[in-house]
Amino acid sequence: MTAKAAARGAGGAAIRVHDLNYTYPDGTAALEHVSFEIEKGESIALVGPNGAGKSTLLLHLNGILHSTRSRGAVEILGKPIDPKKVHEMPKKIGIVFQDPDDMLFMPLLADDVAFGPINLGIGKDEVKQRVKDSLLRVGLAGYENRVSHHLSGGEKKRAAIATVLSMDPEIIAMDEPTANLDPKSRAELIGILKSLKDEGKTLIIITHDVNAIPELADRVIVLKKTVIADGTTREVFADSEMLVAAGLDVPTIMQFFEVLQAFGYPCDVLPLSIDAAVKNLTQTIENEAGHVHLHIHKHTHTEVGAVRGKYQHHHTAADCPE
Ligand SMILES: Nc1ncnc2c1ncn2[C@@H]1O[C@H](COP(=O)(O)OP(=O)(O)O)[C@@H](O)[C@H]1O
Ligand SMILES: [Mg+2]
Predict the structure, then answer these.
(1) Could you tell me if 229 and 78 are in contact, meaning their C-beta atoms sit under 8 angstroms apart?
(2) What are the alphabetically sorted keywords of the record (predicted)?
(3) Phi and psi at residue 317, in whole multiples of 5°?
(4) Nearest one of 223, 173, 158 to 60, comparing CA atoms
(5) How many domains, the chain?
(6) Which residue among 55, 61, 95, 97 has the greatest number of ligand 1 atoms within 8 angstroms of its CB, and so is best to mutate?
(7) Is residue 236 part of a domain?
(8) Tens digits of pLDDT across the chain (322 residues)
(9) Do 79 and 200 lie in a common domain?
(10) Element (H, E) at 54
(11) Where is 45: in which H helix or E strand?
(12) Are residues 1 and 72 in the same domain?
């Protein structure tokens, strides 16, 4: 094990991907030389621009996709995926697809959540208990007899997670779980992900929701066909050039504190979340005898401009000559 992995809290490798390559039958090279390791109990945000290969990678983690060229490139809980035993993978790793309609296909929600455990040959009473527990964990207690395709967008996303929880996998991978949700549903979903993290599940969360990443993930892997960055959330968010090149953002609160620095706010470590910002402000006010001193000097607006320019993805209308 590398020193870095050991420092992360040696639970053993949950996922090992070594030199994974994948080209779709039409010739699209989606993954090239992808390598990374995830320790048990780690929570990872997998980010990257559209078309970066994130969903393709997810489908390799439980053997839905594989290629002869990359045989043995993916190990889950210490074992390479056996293409003949793909049906057993959901016990180890649950994959929650981006579109819940791909996971909810039975008439009633209870049937969808029971589907996996029944396939594993689990007895009727135990299945019933697992359905009840899984629905409870995603805030859908008592939804057994609801018609899946009548659920709201947020309920469907949570129901899709329940269909995976009912198999009690050690690892859960989710494809854009907070996408297309209203703020309340998004907050509920983040709450569920946090509770899974706190329970010690190994999580891989594909997301463009950068403001949610600091609460959800210990580490960020940036994929663009291959792994272009892999580090702590802070390390990855500090590399603005790489992020802009990959078409990614940093949390808004972090950008705002960089702007505050231009106004003279003393801040060595930029906060990545609102909670961290509140702590930072409280500490600064205590250190400075009850006040925060901000000022404008002749370079302030140039510095603010530099901060904004650092994270700019495209020219605004004002930048474009007529
Ligand atoms: N079924 C498919 N057949 C051919 N190309 C595909 C297929 N699915 C995805 N791709 C291509 O593979 C690349 C990676 O796609 P995908 O894994 O969906 O990226 P992401 O999830 O990061 O947006 C893209 O260029 C995409 O167009
Ligand atoms: Mg995708």
Answers:
(1) no
(2) ATP-binding, Nucleotide-binding
(3) -55, -35
(4) 173
(5) 3
(6) 55
(7) yes
(8) 444 444 444 568 999 999 999 999 999 999 999 999 999 999 999 999 999 999 999 999 999 998 888 888 999 999 999 988 999 999 999 999 999 999 999 999 999 999 999 998 999 999 999 999 999 999 999 999 999 989 999 999 999 999 999 999 999 999 999 999 999 999 999 999 999 999 999 999 999 999 999 999 999 999 999 999 999 999 999 999 999 988 899 999 999 999 999 999 999 999 999 999 999 999 999 998 988 989 998 899 999 999 988 888 765 444 444 4
(9) yes
(10) helix 54-61
(11) strand 43-47
(12) yes
User: Which protein residue's CA is at the shortest distance from atom 1 of ligand 1?
Assistant: 24
Structure tokens at 264: 């003279």
Through-space distance between the first and last CA atoms of the chain, rounded to whole angstroms = 57
At which residue do the structure tokens 């359905």 appear?
A: 131
Q: Which of 232, 248, 264 is the last residue of a domain?
A: 248
**Site to substitute for ligand 1 among 22, 23, 24, most atoms within 8 A of C-beta:** 24
Pocket around ligand 1: residues whose beta carbon is below 6 Å from it? Answer: 24, 26, 28, 30, 48, 50-56
Round to whole Å and give the CA distance between 294 and 281: 13
Q: Give the DSSP letter string of 211-229.
A: TTHHHH-SEEEEEESEEEE
Do 125 and 258 lie in one domain? The reply is: no
What pTM value is reported for the model?
0.91
- What is the distance between the alpha carbons of residues 194 and 43, in angstroms, rounded to a whole number? 10
Neighbours of 118 (CB within 10 A): 14
Are the C-beta atoms of residues 76 and 93 closer than 8 Å to each other?
yes
Separation between Cα atoms, residue 223 and residue 216, nearest integer Å = 18
Q: What's the domain range around 16?
A: 1-92+170-184+196-248
Distance, in Å, from the CA atom of 83 to the CA atom of 103, rounded to the nearest integer, reads: 21
